[in-house]
Amino acid sequence: MPSFVILEKCDGCKALDKTACQHICPNDLIVLNKETMKAFNCEPEMCWECYNCVKICPTQAVEVRGYADFVPLGAAVTPLRGTDTIMWTVKFRNGTLKRFKFPIRTTEEGKAVPDGGWGTGTDDLKSPVLFTEPDSAGLPNIPSLKVTQ
Ligand code: SF4
Ligand code: SF4
To answer: Which of 44, 52, 67, 74 has the most beta carbons within 10 angstroms of its beta carbon?
Structure first.
């Protein structure tokens, strides 16, 4: 089920140039109605249900109706993202609340090193092994099959 905006909770990201949900959607699906200052998903059939807009919304105004294999039917799932953790609140049909908190970072915000500090070498694009290997695999070489003619 695609994402949808709960209008009462949406404040239009307080009239920033681009709202948080517009900024994060990989499909550019979110539109801000400039008159009402409320966002909405303009093409629900194109939504991947990636939850990016749900997680980034500062007012918890975006929801996705979860499939039954992810959350029991009729339950609501709401994330609250902090700088180093995310807490998911599941509200069941009978009103029961359960909360799950998970770490989302291993480094402080803004301190992540893009290549993880692994040596990449100058011939990386020609190499058959993955980026940062073999160093990140803790091996001197990545084992490979020998091709015999
Ligand atoms: Fe509204 Fe949330 Fe989108 Fe901001 S991120 S425009 S508050 S739905
Ligand atoms: Fe875009 Fe993902 Fe939100 Fe769907 S769930 S509107 S694809 S950010």
So the answer is: 52
